[in-house]
Amino acid sequence: MANGADKMAQMPELRKKLAWTILILCMYRVGVHVPVPGIDAGALSHFFASMQGSVFALLDMFSGGGLSNVSVFALGIMPYISASIILQLLQVVSPEIKRMSKEEGQAGRRKITQYTRYLTVAITLIQGFGIATMLEGMTSPEGAPVVMNPGWEFRLVTIATLTAGTILIMWLGEQITAKGIGNGISLIIFSGIVVGIPSAIVRSYQLIKAGDMNVLFAIFILIMMLAVTVGIVFVERAQRRIPIQYAKRQIGRKMYGGQTTHLPLRINTAGVIPPIFAQSLLLFPATVAGFSTAAWLQQVVAWFQPTSIVYNIIFVALIFFFCFFYTAIIFDPKDIAENLKKAGGFVPGIRPGEKTREYIDNVLTRLTLWGGIYISIISVLPMLLIAQFNVPFYFGGTSLLILVGVAIDFMGQVESHLISQQYEGLMGKAAKRG
To answer: What's the CATH code, domain 214-402?
Structure first.
């Protein structure tokens, strides 16, 4: 670790990127504590204290505590994620959007990014109105209203504030991606989850001190947390390696090719996208509930509470759907088979072309099935712990997958910068000697 720190100290470019990333994340955390005007903070904190395990607690986790504070960042990055889901689904049904994504290169991707931004604003306006209406109907357990002066003036101010906050988060994430280290949107979600860990530890300690949680049970939960974390790291880094053999070719008097390599396929090819997309869709009923106090609508919302059986069944089904859907988007066996055939490569025992495509597709399908099972177990774990064992925090699920996945990606990018710097240093020394 000390050796890595010494190398980092000698790399001003990497230090600058890290400093920029930390600065942007600090700006985001400051914004989480800037409240929307017209909110009674005391009544709001009492309300959320009684909502552990509900959809509001889940929304608050994704907003990094912004919802419980009703800050300018209360909606977090979820509207942007919802917009991304819609645009990716449209790539399947719309030839025009698919052409922009596949054929127009960087220019097409910029257009899709711009459409995602516009759609994010539209979704934020709708969700902002839902949040404002919901806040007007909230009261603390003592009966104190959360909104001091309800009405259209409060709603319009809240909608404008939340929309501006979401646009700012989107911009901050893009700045991290462009000038910092790692994926900006993922790091913003990561930072929001990490800041909730100390409060979870404090709540657990208070329960143990009050006698509401057994010490042995707390030790069991701690051991299980470590085991699950190690398991996630193992699965996220695991690969199914398909051997690839390149035929020998004679060009002039020299022989080329004959190399043996492999095609690495991850067990969880889709990463954290499936649970994030699934939860984003399932959180939509909570937003819709803000538009009405109808009894039937409130009953639907009750069915979609994170600890309900209906919620978890639909959640698992959506996870499997997005696992196969997203894997199909980012990994095309037909393209892989054609590229291998053009380069003179083949899988031993499999004919090049269509047979290779079928083989890779079958392997990828089996891996995606097991990946969906793995993500489903991890994602349902926190709901089970809260519903059956009254664990006072969310452990596992999307939050843990994000923490591990983003941490691995971040360290990988830092390592690549270190390796590239060493390579440039060696090339510079070789040039001097020459």
So the answer is: 1.10.3370.10
